[in-house]
Amino acid sequence: MTLRARIGEVVESTRFQWMIICVIVVNAITLGAETSPALVEKHGDLLGTIDHLALAIFVAELAARLYAFGWRFFRDPWNVFDFVIVAVALLPAAGPLSVLRSMRILRALRLVAMVPSMRRVVTALVKSVPGLISLTGLLTLLLYVGGVIASNLFGDTGDPRFAGLGPTLLTLFQITTGDGWSDVMRDLMVHQPLAWIFFLCYLMVGTFTMLNLFIAVVCSAMESEVQHVPAPRAATHDDLLLQEVRALRDEVRALKASV
């Protein structure tokens, strides 16, 4: 087995990946601790050392993967994501690039690339984007139509939340999220007792229907992603024989090398 193949086995092993996950978690904790002036004053040197050590481990891991897989490394989008995160961390945090210092916490996002279950969730979200875009367009149209109707119905009540199309759209967006819609409705019912009809109709369509459709699209994409995950296959008799043959070959090579 060549050195490149051995390094590839190491970086793909479960133990190595768990070690990197632990480093990511520790680094994320230290970056959060650096936001506390009291902790920085007491343990600033230690936090800085841990941060630099974590970055060194990430760079070494990335270099090992690049050496093991070569240009194939960049065929996986998650590997490209890891490469960009580590590359940004290596940029100098001084001068015009000082804003990048606050971007170090992006290293914590490497957990998404390291944990398969998180990767599946993100992949499902990406696959649901086309459906979400269509629903967003439909919700925007509903919001605009409701805004025009509400402006005509409640514009003369003197309520600043309905004084024009802009404030009305903002108010309807607030109502769509379910935030304080009953207070807005009761304030309008002082001037127009039948205002509750509009609010109930809008809530039924905008909140209960549209927002649930958003959730349904995401859940459908996640279910589809889970169905594409291959189930773990139990080792068959042929697999066990193949492992034994490989072990015998390794022993023969070792004997030939010793002779």
Largest sheet: none
Helix and strand content put the structural class at mainly alpha
The CATH architecture of the largest domain can be given as: Orthogonal Bundle
Helix content: over 70%
Summed up, the helix count is 11
Radius of gyration: 28 Å
GO molecular function, one term: voltage-gated sodium channel activity
Keywords: Membrane, Transmembrane, Transmembrane helix
Protein name: Ion transporter
Transmembrane segments: 16-33, 53-74, 80-100, 121-145, 194-218
Q: Could you walk me through the main structural features you see in this protein, from its secondary elements to its overall organization?
A:
With 259 residues, the protein is mostly helical. It folds into 2 domains: 3-114, Four Helix Bundle (Hemerythrin (Met), subunit A); 115-259, Helix Hairpins (Orthogonal Bundle). It is built from 11 helices and no strands. The chain has helices at 3-12, 14-33, 37-69, 77-90, 110-114, 116-127, 129-154, 165-176, 181-189, 195-227, 237-258. Helix 7 packs antiparallel against helix 10 (195-227). The longest helix has 33 residues, at 37-69.
Quick overview of this protein structure:
It is built from 11 helices and no strands.
What topology does this entry show?
Blueprint: H1 3-12, H2 14-33, H3 37-69, H4 77-90, H5 110-114, H6 116-127, H7 129-154, H8 165-176, H9 181-189, H10 195-227, H11 237-258
What key phrases describe this protein's structure?
single chain, 259 residues, mainly alpha, Four Helix Bundle (Hemerythrin (Met), subunit A), Helix Hairpins, 2 domains, Ion_trans_dom
